[in-house]
Design a protein that fits this description.
The chain has a single domain (7-234), classed as 3-Layer(aba) Sandwich (Uracil-DNA Glycosylase, subunit E), CATH 3.40.470. Helix content is 46%, strand content 15%. It has eleven helices and seven strands. The chain has a four-stranded parallel beta sheet, with helices on both faces. Strands 1-4-5 form a three-stranded antiparallel beta sheet, with no helix packed on it. The longest helix has 19 residues, at 151-169. The relative contact order is 0.16.
Length: 235
């Protein structure tokens, strides 16, 4: 009898083989593929998916923007920095240590939801673009770059994002609702893309964790409660 791949096995194979196949990027923009750049990430991601996604349960997706250097850029897991990887997921890590404010918010929200096991049993987090982008600051420092920060970058990467979303859905995603992290440009782009391709029946926008931590940290608990109310609409 042929083995039916679990959600986690499908997701792991996708990430293990992930490479950018879109049009050439605009000058000054680099691609960030941690699955190629850091050899230790593959076993981390395999452990994550085998531990929390070793089943055939359908899940709702939360769609971020694209991976950041200090979160998924180091761990391979969206909105999970090395500190949260160790302390919240219990996965060993020996690489560069880093702290990402977005990861802090997400895992406080996950704890309020009921913990990592319950959360990942019901939800999966990724992005329309599962690979990150970088550019150089005026001082020559490597910084994060969002896919929507350049019209030229959007044009170059849209076909890649469409194919990626199709593959993400094949893991076993529920198609009635998707949650969008980023209530501005990310939601606007995904609303347009979803109108063309009908990936999901409805998109529910939420403020991006980075925005919350940078500009609304005093109201963090209110945003956690807003997330929880929104996520419960998926049940």
């Amino acid at each position: 009898m042929k083995h039916e791949l679990t959600f986690g096995e499908k997701a792991f194979q996708f990430h293990k083989r992930l490479e950018y196949t879109g049009e050439p990027l605009p000058k000054g923009i680099g691609i960030m593929n941690p699955f190629v750049e850091y050899k230790d990430i593959i076993p981390i991601v395999e452990t994550f998916f085998s531990r929390f996604f070793n089943d055939h349960t359908e899940r709702h997706i939360l769609l971020g923007i694209n991976p950041s250097r200090l979160g998924a850029g180091l761990t391979g897991i969206p909105f999970t920095d090395p500190k949260r990887l160790i302390s919240k997921l219990g996965i060993a890590y020996s690489g560069k240590m880093a702290h990402e404010p977005s990861s802090t918010f997400v895992y406080e929200m996950i704890q309020a939801f009921g913990g990592v096991e319950l959360f990942y049993k019901n939800f999966y987090i990724n992005s329309p673009c599962p690979l990150g982008f970088t550019s150089k600051s005026q001082k020559g420092k490597t910084i994060n770059y969002n896919y929507y920060d350049s019209a030229e970058l959007i044009r170059a990467t849209t076909p890649f994002m469409v194919e990626s979303l199709k593959k993400l859905k094949s893991f076993g995603l529920k198609s009635d609702i998707a949650f969008v992290l980023g209530a501005g440009k990310n939601t606007a782009f995904l609303q347009k893309l979803n109108g063309e391709h009908r990936f999901f029946g409805k998109l529910i926008p939420l403020e991006h964790p980075r925005f919350i931590m940078q500009y609304r940290s005093a109201k963090k608990q209110e945003y956690i409660e807003k997330y929880l109310r929104a996520l419960k609409t998926g049940f």
